[in-house]
Amino acid sequence: MKTRISIALLLLVLVQATSLPVYGQPHRPPSKSASSVTDDTITDQIRIKLAADSLVKGGAFTVEVKQGVVTLSGAVEQEKQRARADKIARRVKGVKQVIDKIEIKKLSGR
To answer: What pTM did the predictor assign?
Structure first.
């Protein structure tokens, strides 16, 4: 019985000791920075925002993201649609840069 209590106390002390601050530095949880946002999350957020925007909705866009660098491609009819898509992408959390390869051309069927 004393052995079990001794082992339990030893484990408790070890757990407490490992959670103490090192050299007087307080423990800080890891911060949520832009680098913690995944490329897939960025891609999804941009696509959702583009689809919800009345000016660019229906545009034929391709969104590719690699390490926070977004490449937008596709076609729109007006410069203001291209500019809006670029602006939407830049405002998404985690985006470091936007490479705009969107072409402006008259879409068929209109």
So the answer is: 0.64
Write out the two tokens for 56. Answer: 């660019």
pLDDT of 23 = 52
50 is written with which tokens?
């583009």
> Cα–Cα distances in Å, from 48 out to 4, 5, 32, 63, 85?
57, 57, 22, 11, 12
Say how far apart CA 38 and CA 29 lie, in whole Å.
19
Task: Tell me the one-letter amino acid at 40.
Answer: D
The string over 40-69, giving b where at least 16 C-beta atoms fall within 10 Å of a residue's C-beta and e elsewhere, is: eebeebbeeebeebeebeebebebebeebe
- Domains in the chain, start-ordered, CATH in brackets? 37-104 (3.30.1340.30)
